[in-house]
């Protein structure tokens, strides 16, 4: 199973905050590919700039030092995200759904909104 982390999961992991045992075990398993979307870096940076969350340092450096695989946004991802049903309007979440679908990744999240879409989810 290859994973794609939702923004809150990445932040919790980097801050060493508790997440579900199964998700933590899979994220921490060196044989598991764990991806972080460019959309996540974008979202965290925007929210930090707006004062909605605190993040010190570079998110890019944190993703790299955490051993995560960066997942760029492709035109195929953008097209797929734009074509998703409008069940949820958050553009960052829609991009994660599209990327998980297109790349065959399991989305690690605690957000129940993803259940409305055809995407594999690992709750945390």
Textual characterization of the structure:
There is one protein chain. The chain is of the alpha/beta class. It contains six helices and five strands, in the order βααβααβααββ. The protein has a five-stranded parallel sheet with strand order 3-2-1-4-5, sandwiched between helices. The longest helix has 13 residues.
Helix content bin = 40-55%
CATH architecture: 3-Layer(aba) Sandwich
Based on secondary structure, the structural category is alpha/beta
% residues in beta strands: 5-15%
Which stretches of 5+ consecutive residues score pLDDT under 50?
none
Contiguous helical run count: 6
Strand order of the largest sheet: 3-2-1-4-5
Radius of gyration from CA coordinates: 14 Å
> What does the main sheet amount to?
5 strands, parallel
CATH fold name: Rossmann fold
Average residue-wise pLDDT: 96
What's the arrangement of secondary structure elements?
Elements: E1 3-5, H1 7-14, H2 21-28, E2 34-37, H3 38-49, H4 59-65, E3 69-71, H5 75-83, H6 91-103, E4 106-109, E5 121-123
Parallel strand pairs: 1-2, 1-4, 2-3, 4-5
Kindly summarize this structure in a few lines:
The protein is 46% helix and 14% strand. It is an alpha/beta fold. The chain has a 5-stranded parallel sheet, sandwiched between helices.
List keywords for this structure.
globular, Rossmann fold, five-stranded parallel beta sheet, 46% helix, 124 residues
